[in-house]
Amino acid sequence: MAKTVVIAEHGGPEVLKLEDRPLGAPGPGEVLIRHEVCGLNFIDIYQRTGLYPMDLPAALGMEAAGVIEAVGEGVTHLKPGDRAAYAAAPPGAYAEARVMAAAQVCPLPDGISFEDGAAVMLKGLTTHYLFRRTTPIAKGDTVLFHAAAGGVGLIACQWAASEGITLIGTAGTDEKCQLALDHGATHCINYRTEDFAARVRDLTDGEGVDVVMDAVGADTFEGSLDSLKPLGMMISFGNASGPVPPFSIGVLGQKGSLKITRPTLFTHIAEPETCQQMARGLFEKLTSGAIKMRVDQRFTLDDVGEAHRALEARKTTGSTVLIP
Ligand code: NDP
Asked: Would you place residue 315 in the very low, low, confident or very high pLDDT band (cuts 50, 70, 90)?
């Protein structure tokens, strides 16, 4: 048996319930992993509220790190006793242990702690595909990144700095802006007190940025389009403030032949070898020191509701983890 966080209905943090679930043995292509640390992500909130519908009852959580206890037939990249970490669907990572498909479970290098491994997989692989696999971004290019002091945000600030990319961040308080600057953002705009699109124009001599990475969604969408150069790329990858409302595609023409894409991590890591390769690239960023994880909130699995409340209320910075 393993204590697992389950929801029987969509709703507020009160629908999160801890229950004992049978574990079973791994079948072909599966592993049994015992979690040391589980990651918390905004997608967990979308799933809990029903913004991203799922069949119920359902376990939650998409990222964790721990030790492999058993492997099923055909699993060759992991063995019992190995340290490992993953970002993977379907959810079920808020648990003491689970049996799951091995394809997206990656060997975790000895130099990376379980806590960093659990915090970095989903957010770091997302940063990887945003900067490397979505649109060409070269040294010297300028990116606008919203919620730059959040989990994905602080990783993105460091990723950009390590590759000579200018990152203009936004964040909801002056303290959060300072944190983004301390992690490598070139500028950071408090978008609760300033018109960020106008400030981006000032900071770029009227030109605008090459790429916007926007996971705030409803509140920032229009300003994000107004921050782009002609032919610029809008990457809309989340909805922390609510989903982007429907818009007329003609707007992209009027604002300068803009491009737009709406990616998800799970498309990028669907192919197992690509996932493993991306993880190795991400781990290199950590072991070389280019990226240092910042875990600012720790909760026990029993306190998962508190963790959700804090993330939703914009009270967190950097990454948040759950300790089983
Ligand atoms: P964060 O730690 O970044 O938390 C979300 C942040 O969004 C908040 O801290 C807050 O920062 C900002 N925000 C702005 N408006 C609101 C609002 N109305 N309610 C709540 N938060 C708001 O979360 P994660 O690092 O887990 O994820 C960041 C974003 O990236 C999420 O939208 C997530 O869904 C998305 N994502 C998308 C993926 C994909 O592949 N498509 C994969 C991974 C993440 P502030 O106070 O500074 O405004």
From this structure: very high
Q: Whose CA is nearest to atom 25 of ligand 1?
A: 151
Q: What SS3 string covers the chain?
A: CEEEEEECCCCCHHHCEEEEECCCCCCCCEEEEEEEEEECCHHHHHHHHCCCCCCCCEECCCEEEEEEEEECCCCCCCCCCCEEEEECCCCCCCECEEEEECCCEEECCCCCCHHHHHHHHHHHHHHHHHHHCCCCCCCCCEEEECCCCCHHHHHHHHHHHHCCCEEEEEECCHHHHHHHHHCCCCEEEECCCCCHHHHHHHHCCCCCEEEEEECCCCCCHHHHHHCEEEEEEEEECCCCCCCCCCCCCHHHHHCCCCEEECCCHHHHCCCHHHHHHHHHHHHHHHHCCCCCCCEEEEEEHHHHHHHHHHHHCCCCCCEEEEEC
Which domains are seen in the chain, by residue range? 2-123+266-323 (3.90.180.10), 135-262 (3.40.50.720)
The pTM assigned to this predicted structure is 0.98
**CA 92 / ligand 1 centre spacing (Å):** 21
Choose the residue to mutate in 38, 40, 41, 42 for probing ligand 1, maximizing ligand atoms within 8 Å of C-beta: 42
Atom of ligand 1 nearest to the CA of 148: 47
Q: What is the pLDDT of residues 292-311, one digit of tens each?
A: 999 999 999 999 999 999 99
